[in-house]
Specification:
This is Osteopetrosis-associated transmembrane protein 1-like. One of its GO terms (cellular component) is cytosol. Keywords: Membrane, Signal, Transmembrane, Transmembrane helix. Pfam families: OSTMP1 (PF09777). The chain crosses the membrane at residues 225-247. The protein has helices at 2-26, 32-39, 52-74, 81-100, 111-115, 122-137, 145-164, 169-192, 198-214, 224-272. By secondary structure, it is mainly α. Among the domains are: 49-137; 145-214, no CATH class. The longest helix is centred in the C-terminal third of the chain and has 49 residues, at 224-272. The termini are far apart. Bound molecules: 2-acetamido-2-deoxy-beta-D-glucopyranose (10 copies). The site of one 2-acetamido-2-deoxy-beta-D-glucopyranose has 2 residues, from loops.
């Protein structure tokens, strides 16, 4: 009886599955746009639509957004984002400020209507993504004298690379070594002092790769000298240890011999009855 029930259940399940598979293949997802053209494209009453002023702001936002993204993509590799796109970012920031903080004619604000009227919050999300990107680029880190020195030394190094790259690379390694060392040293110093804008970071990264991978030059990095010093000291540690323990044991041995000689003499002397032993 229960077996019969089970097989019936199985048959039902199978039928159901077949039906579902068929339904899937027969009815593809309905075309959303055709659906919306009939039911949602109708306009809402005037006071629910965004105003002319906000429409204008949205239009400017769009233009500046596209300009900035265009710039970002063109400057993506090798990174020239800070050099090329700072001005278009600041334009985008300005118009976003108009939307989020400022008021237009008749003290009208577009903050609520453009930024937070729905769950998706397209304008807010788009802007906030680019804002994060810009923050992580560190483009706002201040120019210092070190930065300027770094840029000119980097320029000299790259010029040197250009000059020698066609010939024998041994020549290049020898001639550009000093400049490369300088640029590395400067970079190390700047790196320690907090933020580094991505353009410089990337330029240094590429220069290092050129030097060691493309030109196969050895590394006169900052860290080489201390590392060598520490490791040679480490190498000598066992020698020092053995030497000192050797010397120490020699000293002990000498003391022992001295002591035993002394003992023998004093025992002998006691035997002779000249000295008394305690
Ligand atoms: C960056 O801007 C300069 C001029 O401002 C232009 O010549 C260069 O092609 C731009 N580079 C990129 C990658 O957009
Ligand atoms: C944005 O705000 C600034 C300063 O309040 C104003 O000068 C500018 O005209 C505004 N831009 C637009 C498109 O309304
Ligand atoms: C806008 O607001 C300021 C103060 O916030 C007020 O002095 C001014 O009269 C307002 N203008 C309009 C057109 O409401
Ligand atoms: C850059 O300098 C300005 C003022 O000179 C300062 O407010 C800002 O915090 C500095 N930025 C960084 C990243 O140090
Ligand atoms: C930066 O360099 C200029 C000229 O090389 C010099 O006059 C100035 O004092 C330097 N500033 C700092 C903070 O070192
Ligand atoms: C170095 O700077 C000079 C002048 O500013 C420029 O003409 C040259 O292209 C730069 N070299 C490199 C490798 O960037
Ligand atoms: C490069 O030049 C050095 C001497 O300047 C020479 O010893 C070496 O063989 C040369 N290498 C090549 C690939 O020409
Ligand atoms: C870091 O910057 C401060 C001033 O901005 C400077 O006095 C200090 O010497 C810098 N440190 C290094 C390691 O360059
Ligand atoms: C330097 O270049 C390497 C290799 O392309 C990359 O993996 C790394 O993230 C770069 N470092 C920085 C700080 O950009
Ligand atoms: C650098 O060295 C590697 C292996 O040592 C070699 O495969 C490569 O061809 C060399 N590159 C140049 C530019 O000499």
């Amino acid at each position: 009886m229960s077996q019969h029930k089970n097989s019936l259940l199985l048959a039902l399940l199978t039928l159901n599955t077949i039906y579902m598979v068929q339904a899937d293949s027969l009815n593809p997802a309905p075309d959303m746009s055709s659906l919306f053209s009939t039911s949602l494209m109708s306009s809402f009453p005037e006071d629910l639509e965004i105003s002319g002023y906000c429409k204008e702001l949205l239009f400017f936002f769009k233009q500046r957004y596209v300009t900035f993204v265009d710039c970002l993509i063109l400057a993506a590799r090798p990174v020239k984002v800070c050099q090329n796109c700072s001005s278009s970012y600041s334009m985008l920031q300005d118009i976003y400020r108009n939307i989020s903080d400022q008021v237009g004619p008749g003290n009208e604000s577009c903050r609520d209507s453009l930024l937070s009227s729905d769950r998706l919050m397209v304008v807010y999300q788009l802007y906030s993504n680019l804002q994060d990107l810009w923050t992580s680029s560190n483009c706002e880190s201040n120019l210092t004298n070190d930065t300027l020195n770094f840029l000119s030394t980097l320029n000299q190094t790259l010029t040197c690379f250009e000059k020698y790259q066609l010939g024998n690379h041994t020549e290049l390694c020898k001639s550009c070594k000093k400049m490369y060392g300088d640029v590395n040293k400067l970079y190390g110093r700047m790196e320690k002092n907090d933020t580094m804008c991505i353009d410089l970071e990337d330029a240094m990264n590429m220069t290092r790769r050129l030097w060691s991978k493309n030109f196969n030059c050895s590394l006169p990095r900052d860290e080489t000298v201390p590392v060598l010093a520490v490791s040679s000291f480490m190498l000598f540690l066992p020698v020092i240890f053995y030497l000192s323990s050797f010397l120490h044991s020699e000293q002990k041995k000498r003391k022992l011999i001295h002591r035993s000689l002394l003992d023998r003499y004093s025992i002998k002397a006691a035997g002779d009855g000249i000295f008394s032993v305690r």
